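Inputs:
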Amino acid sequence: MPMTITEKILAKHAGLKEVEPGQLTNAKVDIALGNDITAPIAIEQFRRAGAKRVFDRERVVLLPDHFAPNKDIKSADQCKLLREFAMEQDLAYYYEVGQMGIEHALLPEQGIVVPGDLVIGADSHTCTYGALGAFSTGVGSTDLAAAMVTGELWFKVPETIKLIYRGKLRPWVGGKDLILYTIGQIGVDGALYMAMEFTGDTIDSLPMDGRFTMANMAIEAGAKNGIFHPDRITEQYVKGRARREYHFYKSDPGARYKEVREFDVSTVEPQVAFPHLPSNTRGISEVGTVTIDQAVIGSCTNGRIDDLREAADVLKGHKISPNVRLIIIPATPSIYRQAMKEGLFDIFLDAGSVISPPTCGPCFGGHMGILAKGERAIATTNRNFVGRMGHPESEVYLSNPAIAAASAVLGRLGSPEELGRKR
Amino acid sequence: MKCSGKVWKFGSNIDTDAIIPGRYLNVTDPEELAQHCMENENPRFVQEAKEGDIIVAETNFGCGSSREHAPIAIKAKGVSCVIAKSFARIFYRNAFNMGLPIIESEEAVDGIREGHEVEVDLASGEITNRTTGQRYRANPIPPFMQEIIDDGGLMKHIAKGRS
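Outputs:
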C-alpha cells in the first residue's frame, strides 16, 4: 500500500509494515523534549507514577529556554527543578544557560534530532523538526512524562494535506511568508489533526532555515505535524551534525491525501498577520499606516542565521525610529557567535537595537520585551493572540525578519523597498 | 458520569493564552492558575464562575501552546465539562490526560446560550438544556477514556492499574 512520509515514519516506529490514517498505534520515541515551563509538571508526574529512571539518558532532552536566564524567583525554582532532575538522571543533553539555545533551533543544530526520527516535545512548536524529514509533534507534560518512563507513546495516524508551491519567490519573500500565506488561506484550524506535507519546486530550492520556519508554524494551522521530503539541502545540513544514524523517507507515488492544494508563489508578497490570529494575513502593500512601538526579531520561528543576515541586510546604514525598541535574539550560542563574526552585531548596534541572549522570553509574554497597554509590536514570532506579548490591550503583528527590520526603521509597518533596499 | 452547571459561552479559536496567559507559566499550583483562568478573554469568569459550571465554545477550542496549565486551570476553576464544536489537537489530549471532561457537539453549541443550565451525560453523549428543555447529541466518550477521567487523569489511571 502506498504511504506518505508521515505514515512511513509512524509505521517504522510502531514496528508495523504499514499504517493508515485513523489507526491507533503505539510507537517508539527517538527524542522526548521538555523545557522549564512544561518539564516541571512532567517531572512531578514522573515521580507520581513511581518511576526511578528515564528510559534512556541520551533520548530525554531538557533545557531551560522560556523564562531563562531566570526571570524571577518562581522561574528560578522551576529551572532549578529541571537542572536537579537532569543531574540526577545523568541526562546526556541538558543545556545550561550559556550553552542553551531556543530548543527548536538548538536540537537540529546540535544534531540531536535527525531525519527519519519520531520526536515528541512538551512544546507545541516541536513540529519544527519536520523540516528535516522527521515526524515531530507537540504534546503536553503528561504525555512527556509517559514517554520519559516508557520510551513510547500512542499516536493516531493523521490524514495528510499536501501543499504544493510552484514558481519563483519575489524579493524579500521567504519561508515565513509562505507559511503565513498558507495559514491565511486555510485558516487556523485548516489542518486540524492533520499532517501538512510541504512540496513543489519552490520548496525544492528553499534553504533549511526557511524550511524550519514553515514546519514550525504548522501548529498554527492546527496540524499535528508539518513535514518536508529530505533532499540534498537536508543532507548538506545534517552531514557532520547528526549524532545518530539517519534515514530519508519519501512519500510514495499514489499515497493518499485528504486534500491537495497548489499555490503559485510568484504573486505572493511579504505577509503580515494582523491581530489576533496568525490567519489574519495581508500582503505588505495592503497594510495601511500602522505605527509600532517595538520590533522583535528572533524566536524558534525566525532566530536563525539566515534570519539575522536578512535583518542586517535591511538595517545596514540605517537607524531605527526613535519611537521603536528593536530587540534581536539570536536563537542559539552558535548563531550568536556566527552573527558576531560576520559583523552583524555592529550593524544591529549601530542601528540602535538591543541584542538579547537566546531566550523565548518576549514571544510568549514571559520577559525581555513585554508590551504595555495599547502598545503595538511587529515580531518574527509565531502567535499574535490577545495579550500574547503582554497587556491584553497590546497588539502583535507577525512578519518575516526583513519586514520587521524595515518597520523598526520606518516606525510603522513597511517594506525594505521603502528604504531603497533592492534584492 | 454526569456533569451539570451554568454555561459560560465563548467564541471560536479560544487559544491557550486566553485560557491562561504566558506570564503565569512560572507557576504550577492549580489553585493559583485557576485565579487567572480566562482573565484576558472574560474577566467576569474568574470572579463569578462556580463549581460545576460548564464552558461552551465554538470551533478549535484550546489552540496554540501545548501548556498543560490550560486544562489544569480550567479544572481547578471547578469547570465540570467543556463543550465545543471542535478542539485543538494538543488541548484535546491534555484535557483527557488531566481528567477534564470535554465533548464535541455542533448542535449543542448552536442551541445553548450563556447562562443556560445544562447537563452532560458523558457515557451516552446526551446533552440536556434544562433551561429550554432541548436535547442534543454528541459523540459519547469511549469507556477507556471515561475511566481516565473517573480516575482523575492519565497518571492516576496508570498508577491505579499498577497497584
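Remarks. Residues 73-88 of chain A form the longest helix (16 residues). The radius of gyration of chain A is 20 Å.
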